[in-house]
Every structure is written in structure tokens, then in C-alpha cells.
Design a protein that fits this description.
With 422 residues, the protein is an alpha+beta fold. The protein has helices at residues 11-22, 38-42, 56-61, 71-76, 79-88, 108-121, 175-182, 243-261, 278-291, 310-317, 330-341, 397-411; strands at residues 3-7, 26-30, 51-52, 63-65, 93-95, 100-103, 125-127, 132-138, 141-147, 152-154, 157-160, 191-193, 197-199, 211-221, 224-235, 239-241, 266-271, 343-350, 358-360, 381-383, 391-392. Strand 1, helix 1 (11-22) and strand 2 form a beta-alpha-beta unit.
Amino acid sequence: MCKVLVIGGGASGMFAAIWAARNGHSVTLYERNEKAGKKLFITGKGRCNLTNACDMDTLFSSVVSNSRFLYSSFYGFTNQDLIEFFEEIGVRTKTERGGRIFPASDHSSDVIRGLLQELGRLNVEIIFHARVKELETRNGAFYQLVLSDGKKIRGDACIVATGGLSYPVTGSTGDGYRFARGLGHQVTPCLPSLVPIEVKEPWIQELMGLSLKNVRAAVFDGKKKLYEDFGEMLFTHYGVSGPLILSASSYIGRKLSEKAASGGTLRLEIDLKPALDMEALDRRVLRDFEENQNRQFKNSLGKLFPAKLIPVITELSGIMPEKKVHVISKEERLRFVKLIKGFPLTLTRLRDYDEAIITKGGVKTKEIDPGTMESKLIKGVYFAGEVLDLDGLTGGFNLQIAWSTAFAAGNNISSGDRGYRQ
């Protein structure tokens, strides 16, 4: 039996502690907040999207950074294993659109309660209001934790599950990156991900609150397409958000941040009618125009767009709002059709960490054993969850990364971790 010290009482920390304890180890969990699971509590708008019921190929393709690193951990503890685990501890689950798995109660508090009850059953000690200052090593292996009050705690193994930088109000302040650097690890540059994006156009405020479903979005750097997908998005007072945009931020965030640093931008084009090609859309517009030929242009678009969008798209079209439809030229109409297929916005910067679901970047995965999550540099130190350079799309994929890496860490601590500290 090893004495295992876990830093962080979030999803990955609690889960790693459970599996270390189930393997017979003595486990103490250190949490800087007054309670565990603060970020888990707000996940999925308080409903907690636990994982996704997709097949393994989809699971891997939904990981944006370093998906190959997760091969052992994803197969070692699958999304189906996760569902069975929660059913086993009394948290019933349900499947919703897109394969998203939620607790049947729709309350994240039930997920946290289930994890805490299991920790209690396994006699895991949880120390709240405990801020870890540093990890100390001897002879290339973990030796002890040093708390902010100077107290030192000896241990045979340490699991770093401190999260990233997103939602800092929940306690994610990047401590794990500091610990990793102190041990000699490289930390890849971090930035907010699954986060809304600001735009340059001042008229964006006129669209605030407008949600668009079934649109296609593409992001360009000059002529180079960086991202394209289909789905739902939302306009805000500062820019764009919603599932389609959050996913885009995962792929274009680093490039946009580089551009922003030098005053540059990226271009977003929204296809408002992706089910129709240019010719079909032109026929549709022409039919609407014929039905409204004696009306003003601005009053002829009610069947094409939501009311909030009409004044903006009218202005961008270059067609005078009061112009009678029957005198609109073919050239003007074709330009209008082109606008509908490529509604333009200028992306300027990502929103900050306090609006980001996750952090992109983290402890370099090449320095971590993918089968056990143990550091390749320091024996007896393990990393799990968002602190690693791993991130996925929305839909439960990031929590599956947390569960699977935490299982690998907690389940692979062995008696071999003893003796390094002698």
C-alpha cells in the first residue's frame, strides 16, 4: 500500500483518488477551495455533460490536441465504462441529442455527491482550504508536498489534477503548470479554448441575442480556410458564441491569438442557407422577389431571415432599403445571394479564461507515460485532466479526457512507487 497525495478536488482529482483507493492505497486529497467539484458544478450549464455515447473513432476525432496520446487511457477506461461507473455508484444517466450523456436528474450536484460518497466509502481523506506551494523530490522521485503554510507532507506518489486556467473563479489558476515546470517539465503555451470570439464590426450589437440554427461557418486566414463546420451559433454584444463558434475556437484560437498580437484578424463567413447552392438560392430569392415585387426591399425579406437580421443584411447588401423590389437589378440580386452564402465578420480576439470552458495547452504529453500518466522525468508524479496538453470539442469529450487520464493515474500506482523516497 502506498501513501498517495492528490492535488485538486475537481473531476480528475476525485476520480484519480477513487481508483487509487480502490487499489488499496491510502489516499489524501488536497483542495484549495472550501468544497470539491466547483467547476464540475457549473459544467453543462449546471447539468454536467459527463461524456458522450459515441463510438471510439468519433471519440478520438473529437480530441483536438494530441489525440494519439489518449489511445491507452481511452481504451483503458472507455465512455461506456464511465456510464457503468456512475450507474454503479447510484447516479443514473440519460442520453440526449448528439450522444451527450447527462445525469438523469439534470443536476451536476448529484454527480459531485456520488463521487464524494464513493470517496467517503473508500476512506479518502479530503483536506479543504489546502493550497499546495510546491512538490519536492529526492533522487529523481517524488518526496513530499509543501503547503502554503509551510507544512510538509511525505508521500509515495503524487497525482497533479489541478485543472487549467479556465473559470479561475473555481480555483483553476495554473498551479499545476508551476509544479510541472518546477519538476523540469515543459508546458506548451496556454490560451482559452471553447470560448466565444470578439468581432470588429460595430453593428454586431444590433444582432445581440439572435441565435442561428443549421448554418455553416468557415474561418479564413486570407484565402486559406482554417475551419469549417455546420451547426448552431449565437450573436452577442461583443461578437459570436454558441456551439459552432466554441468548436471553431479550438481550431483557430492559436492562429487568432498570434494575429491579434500583431494587430491582425481572421475572417468568418457564415452560410445562412447551406442547404441551397448558389443557383438554387438565386431561384428562391427570385421567387420571393416576384411575390413582393411592389414592396420595398427591406420589407421583402421576412421569409428569408429572422427580423433582427434584416436591417443588417439589408445594409450590407448595398441595395437601398426603400428600393422597390421590381427595380432591383440582376447584378444586385446576385451580389445579395453571394452575401447570404458568405455573411462576413472580422474575428479580432478570443474572450478571456473566465468565459472559456477549457484551456488549450499544458504539460507536454511527450514527457508523460501515456499508459500510466506518470512523469517520465520524476518517478511517482502523475498528471491527470486539464493540466495536460489535451483538449476536445464540446459534447462531453473533455470530461472523458479527465475521467480516462485520472483512471490511468489512479489505477497504475503500484508498490514500485515506494522505496524511491528512502
